[in-house]
Amino acid sequence: MEKGRILLAVTGFHPQRWRDLLSAEREVVLEPDGASDPSITYAVVWKQKPNLLASLPNLRAIFSIGAGVDHIFADPGLPDVPIVKVVADNLTQYMTEYVVWRVLDHHRQGLLYRSQQPKKIWHEPQQRPASDISVGIMGLGNLGRAAASVLLSLGFAVNGWSRSERPMKGVATYSGEAGLIPFLKATDILVVLLPLTPDTHGIINYGVLKELRKRNGLGGSVLINAGRGRLQKDADIMRALDDGTLKEASLDVFEVEPLPKTSPLWGHPKVFVTPHAAATSDPVHLVPIMLRQMDAFERGEKLDNLVDRKAGY
Ligand code: NDP
Ligand code: OXD
Fold it and tell me: Secretion signal: which residues (predicted)?
């Protein structure tokens, strides 16, 4: 079988590095040659333009540039071909670093010390062991499990919540709707690593934040969201921070991105903002995985890391 041609369809960033690396082995185009270009076999995408893929007659698979695939499902003309999501050590490592960094910063009172320094305040708050703190990971998938195992090794108590039951040694696991409230009630630092689907849209709202445990060495519960912005209601987070339901938050993702300059989250003293940068997709690491999958597929092997279209992730 001849090597299939790739359509590289991205918005929001310049795809030159992806193009250079993919084209080392395959022909790559940035625009199809007409709406029904028969030469395209694969699409490598990040937020592809709506209906761009709809009528490509020989499209055999779509490769997401991210671990999340909500950007693909946003397309009303999405063809019914397999979708492959990113599962890669490099991306997992980045996310683990982000989660551990943010958990440790909240646990070790980073926000307080940063506020004390300009005022030259020499004050040490009471220090608690990590074992006093329960970190609850919402979304115990590839990224959630990797972060959980490092947090465990640091001595934190770890809870996990997933759609189906996902046992993990050392982690108190909860699942489904019935498991959500017990999971929250046992959690001091909530780490959100869910995919955005119709079921999870808006799940991080005031009612959910209100259920978090406050009996802990941090002096209040903490939210860390590195999943997707539309999992959360920005206004509910503001409300929870302002009335003390939340002590602090680290937010990597927002309902609208880039976060509008008018958002009060930018200047909120209890919020740490990063620009959807928790785990970047690096083509140097991800392109070889995609090319290997395409080669294997053409030899008749199965594609790995397929998206479950019904579940939406
Ligand atoms: P996975 O598909 O491996 O894991 C998703 C987890 O979420 C699974 O445990 C799944 O449950 C759980 N889940 C899904 N729907 C529900 C639901 N309705 N109720 C309860 N649990 C649910 O994904 P990854 O770990 O690879 O990635 C997670 C997300 O992280 C991505 O979808 C993306 O949005 C985000 N991300 C953000 C990045 C950033 O830079 N900010 C970078 C990379 C990813 P089950 O185990 O039962 O299937
Ligand atoms: C992803 C992301 O989904 O970068 O991988 O957000």
Answer: none
Atom of ligand 1 nearest to the CA of 160: 9
Q: What is the pLDDT of residue 35?
A: 87
Output the pLDDT for position 1: 61
Using CB distances shorter than 6 Å, the residues near ligand 1 are 66-68, 95, 139-144, 161-164, 166, 193-197, 199-200, 226-228, 252-253, 276, 278-279, 313
Cα separation, 313 vs 310, whole angstroms: 8
Selected catalytic residue, list 213, 276, 285, 292 = 276
Residue whose entry in the numeric block shows the structure tokens 């934190």? 156
Q: How far is it, in rounded angstroms, from Cα 80 to Cα 78?
A: 7
The per-residue pLDDT of the chain, averaged, comes to 96
Q: What are phi and psi of 95, to 5 degrees?
A: -70, -40
Low-confidence stretches of the chain (pLDDT < 70) are: 1, 216-217
Q: What would you measure as the largest C-alpha separation in the chain, in angstroms?
A: 70
